[in-house]
C-alpha cells in the first residue's frame, strides 16, 4: 500500500485528521497513513543529545502533525 504523503492529507476530512493527529501524538503510527515506515518499531521517539545520526519518529511524524495543525486549530484537536 505504501505511505500516504503529507500533501494527500488535504483530501481527508477534519475528523479523520484529528484521529491521525491524536494517534501520532502518542508515538503510534496511524493505519490511515498506510504502511508503517521501515524500522518504525525500533526508531527512538526523538533525538537525545548523546545520540548519533539516526532516524526518529519525530522526524517522520512532524510534517504530518504540522500540516494538520495548520488546518485544524488545537482547540478542535483537543477540546477543553
Amino- and carboxy-terminal Cα gap: 36 Å
Overall strand count: 0
- The general outline is globular
The radius of gyration is: 13 Å
Strand-pairing-aware structural class: mainly alpha
What pattern of helices and strands is seen along the backbone? HHH
Strand content: under 5%
Count helical runs. 3
Mean of residue pLDDT values: 94
Report the major sheet.
Answer: none
Oligomeric category:
single chain
Instruction: List segments where confidence is low: pLDDT < 50 over at least 5 consecutive residues.
Output: none
Helix fraction?
25-40%
Topology:
Blueprint: H1 14-24, H2 57-71, H3 74-77
Produce a short descriptive summary:
The chain contains three helices and no strands. It is globular, with a radius of gyration of 13 Å. By secondary structure, it is mostly helical.
Structure in words:
The protein is built from three helices and no strands. The radius of gyration is 13 Å and the shape is globular. The chain has 80 residues and is mainly α. 10% of the residues are buried. α1 packs antiparallel against α2 (57-71). 38% of the residues lie in helices and 0% in strands. The model has no long low-confidence stretch (mean pLDDT 94). It has helices spanning 14-24, 57-71, 74-77.
Amino acid at each position: 500500500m505504501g505511505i500516504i504523503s503529507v500533501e494527500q492529507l488535504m483530501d481527508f476530512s477534519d475528523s479523520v485528521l484529528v484521529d491521525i493527529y491524536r494517534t501520532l501524538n502518542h508515538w503510534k503510527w496511524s493505519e490511515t497513513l498506510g504502511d508503517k515506515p521501515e524500522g518504525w518499531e525500533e526508531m527512538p521517539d526523538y533525538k537525545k543529545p548523546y545520540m548519533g545520526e539516526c532516524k526518529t519518529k519525530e522526524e517522520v511524524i512532524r510534517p504530518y502533525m504540522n500540516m494538520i495543525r495548520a488546518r485544524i486549530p488545537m482547540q478542535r484537536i483537543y477540546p477543553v
